[in-house]
Specification:
By secondary structure, this protein is α+β, with helices and mostly antiparallel strands. It folds into two domains: about 1-35 and about 115-143; about 40-110. It is about 45% helix and about 30% strand. The chain contains two helices and five strands; from the N terminus they run αβββββα. It has a five-stranded antiparallel sheet, covered by helices on one side. The radius of gyration is 20 Å and the shape is elongated.
Amino acid sequence: MKTILYIVWALYVAATIFSLVHAVRRTRRQAQLMADWPKAQATVTGSTTGWTSGVGGSSRNLRYYPTYQFTDQRGTLFMGKSEVSLVEQPLPGSLIEVAYNPADPNESLQVSSEPRTALGCLIPFFAVFAVALFWFIGVFPLG
């Protein structure tokens, strides 16, 4: 029976590592793109809503994704939607910083350190959780 628990643990660890590596690569790629792209002040025009996943028995929470508009260096107006979620609904008219692709200004990203901060917290959490699960499997009494 413990063998099955160790196999499930190994699958969990493999899936977690795969997900974290994918998230780190995506965040790094976006940061590299934004470093080379021009920045602009964007005006929040509203927001769309979404829900947190509720994984791990936590309750689902409503999140807000700002929609915005900005002008490029030539003065052309573009619109975008942030991938950075907020707990509170953003106020229309407030300003956020965005970086946009000069070759295609329709591609823009909100400048934020939140994704890197979240990854910095998630990686140690999952490492400690995996070690705790491994220990628990070892001491779990199977009769």
